[in-house]
Amino acid sequence: MYYRAKRKTNREVSLYEPIGTDKEGNQFTMADIVESPESELWERVLLKKNIGQLYSVIPKVLNNREQYIICKRYGLYNTVPRTQREIALTLGISRSYVSRIEKKAIMKLKRAFTQ
């Protein structure tokens, strides 16, 4: 019975068992290779959540011109990020006016996120 049970676990490998040594003679495990830092994982989850929230808030909070400028400026919705000057040429307005609209839109988004 013992050998049958042992045969089932024969192919199992622990992430924390030493699998080799590096050039300096230090042992390393599979966990050292596979594992990512917990904080990095948490940051990615939080970033994904915030991006989803941003995409849902943009149409509710910003008018069409503000949406256009923010999306083009920061490359949202799989667009190429553009400079304020490029956006200004496209819209036929000054670069400083694009800057003011962008600043106003960012403040609106910030208020929407903090509520």
- The helix-strand sequence is HEEHHHHH
Low-confidence stretches: none
Largest sheet: 2 strands, antiparallel
- Tally the beta strands: 2
Supply the number of helical segments. 6
The spatial strand order of the largest sheet comes to: 1-2
Overall average pLDDT: 84
What Rg is obtained from the alpha carbons, in whole angstroms? Answer: 26 Å
Structural class: mainly alpha
Shape: elongated
Span from first to last CA?
62 Å
State the helicity in percent bands. Answer: 55-70%
- Beta-strand portion reads 5-15%
Report on this model:
The protein is mainly α and 115 residues long. 65% of the residues lie in helices and 6% in strands. The protein has a two-stranded antiparallel ribbon with strand order 1-2. A hairpin with a 5-residue loop joins strand 1 (18-21) and strand 2 (27-29). The model has no long low-confidence stretch (mean pLDDT 84).
